[in-house]
Design a protein that fits this description.
Strand content: over 45%
Radius of gyration: 13 Å
Oligomer: single chain
Order of helices and strands: EEEEEEEEEEE
Helix content: under 10%
Shape: globular
Number of strands: 11
């Protein structure tokens, strides 16, 4: 059974850090671009970051550029999102997703989705 499991969320103070993990089973992540999306209550899911399948190119949304870092550990079949200098507006459910080929900001084309992990940033 193919699965993506997102973990690492929690409650953190503004200015703090969290490291999210996206672990795959049933398929190999290095064949896929991996995106992170987030959704706040009452809002549409938005793209946060993505890492490419072949050359390791990385992409970041404007609101997180310079604060978040996406990376791969192919030996562990896992992608990470290091989140630093967290702000209250970063609060939401974070989802990882796998897409064959190149990164995209659109949810369309992502074949597999994790269950999401809650990130709450307090003042």
């Amino acid at each position: 059974q193919v699965q993506l499991v997102a973990s690492g969320g929690g409650l953190v103070q503004a200015g703090g850090s969290l490291r999210l993990s996206c672990a795959a089973s049933g398929f190999t992540l290095d064949d896929y671009a991996i995106g992170w999306f987030r959704q706040a209550p009452g809002k549409e899911r938005e793209g946060v970051s993505c890492i490419g399948s072949s050359d390791g190119s990385t992409y970041y949304g404007d609101s997180v550029l310079g604060r978040f870092t996406i990376s791969r550990d192919n030996a562990k079949n896992t992608v990470y999102l290091q989140m630093n200098s967290l702000k209250s507006e970063d609060t939401g459910v974070y989802y990882c997703a796998a897409r064959l080929g190149v990164c995209s900001w659109s949810r369309s084309g992502y074949r597999y989705w994790g269950q999401g992990t809650q990130v709450t940033v307090s003042s």
